[in-house]
Amino acid sequence: MQRASEFRVQDGVTLRTCSAEDLVVFKAFAGREKDWLDIEGIALRQHGRLDERLIWSELTPLLELKDSSFARARRTRILRIPKPPPTSRTVSASASGTGDRMAST
User: Fold this and answer.
1) Quick one: CA dihedral 30, 32, 35, 36, positive or negative?
2) Single pTM value for the model
3) Which pLDDT tens digit goes with each residue over 23-39?
4) From start to end of the chain, where are the E strands?
5) Which of 32, 42, 57, 83, CA to CA, is 20 to 30 A from 49?
């Protein structure tokens, strides 16, 4: 909820939306073909603005639980970013800043 933002649909109607980074994490974990297509679209629209460190810090433990090297490899290819080296500390979501927001459809 910390990275959520309000998206105005019309006068007097707003939706609380997740960040683009949170949507990428959610969809990569779900891992359906449609989710991967959605991630490609998010990466194209948000090119250069996604907080890649945040995505990796939240997605990596989930993929390890799921034991999905396929999902990890596919996400890397789509976003074209290398996995950062492991650090001795975990990056907290609140310390990573905020990314651009987008509504899911």
Assistant:
1) positive
2) 0.62
3) 999 998 888 899 989 99
4) 5-10, 13-17
5) 32
